[in-house]
Amino acid sequence: MKTVELLGTKFISSPMEAFVQELNRRLISGQQTFVVTANPEIMMYTYKDPNYAQVLKHADYIIPDGIGVVMASKILKKPIESRLPGFDLMMHLLELATEKNYSVYFLGAKEEVIVKAVKQAAIQFPKLKIAGYHHGYIDFNDTSIIEEIRSKSPDIVLVGLGFPQQEMWIQNNRHVMEKGVFMGVGGSFDVLAG
Ligand code: UDP
């Protein structure tokens, strides 16, 4: 995958379709994958919190979520090919999962929001294999949710705890799982819930 380096971070510079196919290749080969959707707010935060900066170093792909990143890339004369909004990527992953029979776990948002979001996902993709879901107001030291997700062995885990928690959660817990694409989706469940 082509990347563009901006202020020390390598962003994916690719059209959405090609990036989704890249994730599909990783799913087929069973490689675990950590995707971060980054906007300028997230990039600035890495300067404040070295722990978070460290977590981002473990990401397999950092995608340019906000238009601000794409604009900055143009100003710095290292243009990123296209913006990859986190919400759009999440919807493309749901479509891919439906086509290829990959199971998806949804973690995050308020209880009523995640229930609605999962319902919406099932309406839009009736054949989607939903491994499970849980709201995001969890005790980060409580391992029962991680155990639940592990036992369901999902192919894709969407984590909407907001940044920086969602990336911290992914990096702290993904080693427990054998496989999976893990992606921080921010407030996307709220959008999907409508
Ligand atoms: N959230 C959560 N647990 C928390 C804090 C936040 O599940 O402890 C959820 C919140 O309900 C919302 C999302 O995380 O669905 C954060 O959305 P926001 O737009 O604030 O995050 P960003 O897109 O800026 O990362």
Automatic annotation (TrEMBL):
What residue stretch is flagged as signal peptide?
none
State its role.
Answer: Catalyzes the conversion of GlcNAc-PP-undecaprenol into ManNAc-GlcNAc-PP-undecaprenol, the first committed lipid intermediate in the de novo synthesis of teichoic acid.
Segment of the intact protein contained? 1 to 194 of 243
Statement: the UniProt record of this protein carries the keyword rRNA processing: no
Q: Which Enzyme Commission numbers does its entry carry?
A: 2.4.1.187
| Pathway info | Cell wall biogenesis; teichoic acid biosynthesis
Gene Ontology MF, one: N-acetylglucosaminyldiphosphoundecaprenol N-acetyl-beta-D-mannosaminyltransferase activity
Q: Which organism is it from?
A: Pullulanibacillus pueri
| Assigned protein family | Belongs to the glycosyltransferase 26 family. TagA/TarA subfamily.
Entry keyword set: Cell wall biogenesis/degradation, Glycosyltransferase, Teichoic acid biosynthesis, Transferase
Q: What is this protein called?
A: N-acetylglucosaminyldiphosphoundecaprenol N-acetyl-beta-D-mannosaminyltransferase
Q: What class of enzyme is it?
A: transferase
